[in-house]
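Task 17 of the worksheet. Students: predict the tertiary structure of the chain below and write it out as structure tokens. Keep your answer in the requested format; marks are given for formatting as well as content.
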Amino acid sequence: MIPGGPRNPREMAQMMRRLGMTTESVPDVEEVIVRTRTKEHHFEKPEVTVLTVQGVRTYQIVGQPVVRPRSAGPPAAAAPAAGPATPVGPPEEDVRLVMEQANVSREEAVEALFQAKGEPAEAIMRILSRGR
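Model answer:
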């Protein structure tokens, strides 16, 4: 609790209301999964509480997680539907900018962006400096 603060739950609730803090329990939670790059923290039937302070919602999860390595890909049920492939390479805006500023072809602009690790300004400087 807060040192020197309220000594009973009723006083604590009053103080929280004065500060604009609210709490609410989330009923009937079946599971919570927290995924990091390499692990999954899987909570079965946790207690979940939402604390709202000045419009910011914070979720508190109480339970014992099962921590396991994260699989290489998404679960089969969550696999995205087949659609257009994500383009590989620098963004189109960067390619156009390099083409315009350095007055080069698309292929030269893309190559310069790869060499400059995707930095348009660096790509333009490389093209212009080799023309000397």
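Marker's comment: The mean pLDDT is 82. The chain has four helices and six strands.
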